[in-house]
Amino acid sequence: MSTEVVAVSAVSAEQLQSPSAPAQQIAVEKVNLLGMSRPQMEKFFEDMGEKKFRAGQVMKWIHQFFVTDFAQMTNISGKLREKLEKICEIKAPEVVHKNYSKDGTRKWVFRVGDGEGSLVETVLIPAEHRSGLRRTLCISSQVGCALDCSFCSTGKQGFQRDLSQAEIIGQLWMANYSYMEDVPVLERERSVTNVVMMGMGEPLLNYDAVLNSMRTMLDDFAYGMSKRRVTLSTSGVVPKIDQMVKDIDVALAISLHAPNDELRNELVPINKKYPLEQLIAACQRYIAKDGNESSRKHVTIEYVMLDGVNDHPEHAQQMIRLLKNLPSKINLIPFNPFPHAPYGRSSRNRIISFQKTLSDAGFVCTIRQTRGDDIDAACGQLVGQVADRTRRAEQWKKKVAQQNEILRSQG
Ligand code: SF4
């Protein structure tokens, strides 16, 4: 939220109505409407003394027409637009770096605070699919991550803070807007077809903000995405998987990466708290019993291929035993090395033979294509590069200032 001095007689929606509020210039934190789910926005409008259906209208302008200026919301009365202008804003996080690959992959680094490292990244990957072109957006949920998986560049940056709803939905908003910037407002469309909550951070450790953001993704007044096209990926926060099953129906992916506890404790340390037996049981509880929930017919298993670490034939056999009672699709991910990474990428032959073992056992097993190689970086690495450049630029500025100071003092 930003702070602006505006001539209003209130600091909140309720106070805006109050005739006794002092009419004077006061500092007001504008409320950012971007991240609000529909129930939250309806309450906001009701508290302001407005009809709650206004929330749906405003949400459509924000999330379907990518409008940030209340003056462009033509089906809303001038009086209400003026009121909104005074106390609200629609503000996506600031883009500090963007990179569009030749193959259609797009990456953004967003600044989400004042600190040097307050950066998160978002990646959009296009792919042809039998149902048409898919544009899948990988969204971050935290600045850094506390879970410190040993193969992960983000984990090495430590944890700073959770992202707000506006910062999470802002990534989806900006990715869509990047295709629509030059299109007249009423002709704008949503371009992102799929979302995976698989960027920086563990989404289930920022539960409420991620849940409300996913609700906005599914909401017909916002992005109207199908529940099969919104996937939450977790490293295995078991109690929160159970909670999520009660709260929302979306697809689930597990960052597994190891087929036994000993290796997983090393690669994904949260496994020490919620070992494989508990994790697999939670996934089984997630699978819809009545078969009606199309998003919950299987779990996606993510498995990063680390040379000589988790890619032996015996590991593939252990996977078969581990997953035998869990409807699952397995996605093998060739490791994307980053500076000082303690691992290397498994050879192509190793990955293919691992896939064959699993496929022969009846699993649907795919190998993730590496995309956007000309701009590529492992998840979290791009942020590291941008932070490094920012740090170097700041150090350079300081050095120049110091030299100028010395020259001045020397007369
Ligand atoms: S893999 Fe995911 S959960 Fe593990 S440290 Fe990286 S961002 Fe966090």
TrEMBL record:
Annotated residues for binding of [4Fe-4S] cluster: 145, 149, 152
GO-annotated biological processes: rRNA base methylation; tRNA methylation
Note: Reaction proceeds by a ping-pong mechanism involving intermediate methylation of a conserved cysteine residue.
UniProt protein name: Dual-specificity RNA methyltransferase RlmN
EC number: 2.1.1.192
Matches recorded under InterPro entries: Aldolase_TIM, Elp3/MiaA/NifB-like_rSAM, Methyltransferase_A, RlmN_N, RNA_MTrfase_RlmN, rRNA_lsu_MTrfase_RlmN/Cfr, rSAM, rSAM_sf
Organism encoding this protein: Acinetobacter pragensis
Gene: rlmN
Enzyme class, UniProt record, top EC level: transferase
Alphabetical list of SUPFAM superfamilies matching this protein: Radical SAM enzymes
One annotated GO molecular function: rRNA binding
NCBIfam families linked to this entry: rRNA_mod_RlmN
KW Ligase (keyword) present: no
Family to which the UniProt record says this protein belongs: Belongs to the radical SAM superfamily. RlmN family.
